[in-house]
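User: quick one, fold this
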Amino acid sequence: MTVQLQTPPLTDAFKTAFGGHPAGVAVITADSGSGPVGITASSVASVSAEPPLLAFSLAANSGSAAAIAIADSVVVHLLSATNLNLARIFADSRSERFTDSMAWSRMDGGEPLLVHDGYSLRCTILSRTPAGGSLLLAAEVVEIIAPPTVGAPMVYHSRAFHSLGEHSVLAG
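Assistant:
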């Protein structure tokens, strides 16, 4: 006999609500001690400008997410719409990452830095807080690498990647 678990109505409604709420897309990288790791995230949020703080959550406790969860420092790469390939590579745990064909280098602290046309924020982890089945990390931004020109931001909405730009500006 197979027992099927039912998803509570509140959980379904929560997923529907946030599925329709767009979020910026980032790739978070770190050095795990045994090599570079990275994941795609849509949970990055600005917390404070003074001092500059951000937060993000990790839903998995294995693989790259587990390595990022214990790292002392990370790089948060805020992706632009032209970085769709990076978003897809780091969203799929089966994808090869940090290969010779991928443009990346190491920062002075050893963190992997991806070459892309968005901002990169090097951060030190301040706290790790369990929250439901996830881990919420707060981090202080200690360095910002700005691109020569900033592309249109990438957002995640309704289970797909989208671009924001002049076409999406609402008339005031």
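User: anything notable?
Assistant: The first helix runs from residue 9 to 19.
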